[in-house]
Amino acid sequence: MADNVSIHAGATSALDVIAAEDIAGAKLLRLKIALGTNGVDGGNLSATNPLPVSGTVTASGPLTDTQLRATAVPISGTVTASGPLTDSQLRATAVPVAGAGELTPASGQVSGSGNNTLITPASGKKLRVYYAAYNPLLAAEAAFRFAAAGSLWLRNNVTANSVIAKDFGDFRYVQGAADEALILNLSLAVSTNWSCFYVEV
């Protein structure tokens, strides 16, 4: 049988066609849903005028790849990851790497026996040394330290005109406490060239 039904509204009126669908020989009336409270025309239900739904929807199971890509999903709390980043992960987003950044070079010559102050940090700052070297013109014992009584480091007995140098690399360094100056300690009064690369932190 065909869809739809034709009826007369009155004895002399023309036929009106009522939307219906034929299912197994029976007519199923097709209706539109209109929205709105009593006495209010809220318009027909449509893609731009959807059926209002309220309440809590409980979902179980993981989100699919399509669901994750369609709309950003807010995540709160702590996310723990283990294992190294893959090549794809590294290329997708820049990964911050902590290193020294821009270093400040410094060099000079001292000649006093005992402590010789080389660099004094700004008030409240620390000196972080990534490279240090010295070159006494005579045989002597020399070493660096932070502050007048700090531990000696890069300490050596060197022959005349020898160069002692240490590059700690990008991720290792020697660091003094706040306000501690970098000092070169000499066993005797001898002209000694020095150089270093550092940052103040």
Q: How would you describe this structure to a colleague?
A:
This protein is 6% helix and 36% strand. It is mostly beta strands and 201 residues long. It has two domains: 49 residues, no CATH class; 97 residues, Sandwich (Jelly Rolls), CATH 2.60.120. Strands 5, 7, 10, 11 and 13 form a five-stranded antiparallel β-sheet that branches. Strand 1 and strand 2 form a beta hairpin. The protein is rod-shaped. The mean pLDDT is 86.
And the CATH topology of the largest domain?
Answer: Jelly Rolls
Over all CA atoms, what is the radius of gyration? 41 Å
Question: How confident overall, as mean pLDDT?
Answer: 86
The separation of the N and C termini measures: 88 Å
* CATH class category label of the largest domain: Mainly Beta
Low-confidence parts lasting 5 or more residues at pLDDT below 50?
none
The helix content, as a percent range, equals under 10%
H and E order: EEEEHHEEEEEEEEE
By DSSP, the count of extended strands is 13
CATH architecture annotation name of the largest domain: Sandwich
Indicate the overall shape.
Answer: rod-shaped
Total discrete domains: 2
Largest pleated sheet: 5 strands, antiparallel
Helix/strand/pairing class, anyone?
A: mainly beta
Beta fraction: 35-45%
Treating each run of at least 4 consecutive H or I residues as one helix, how many helices? 2
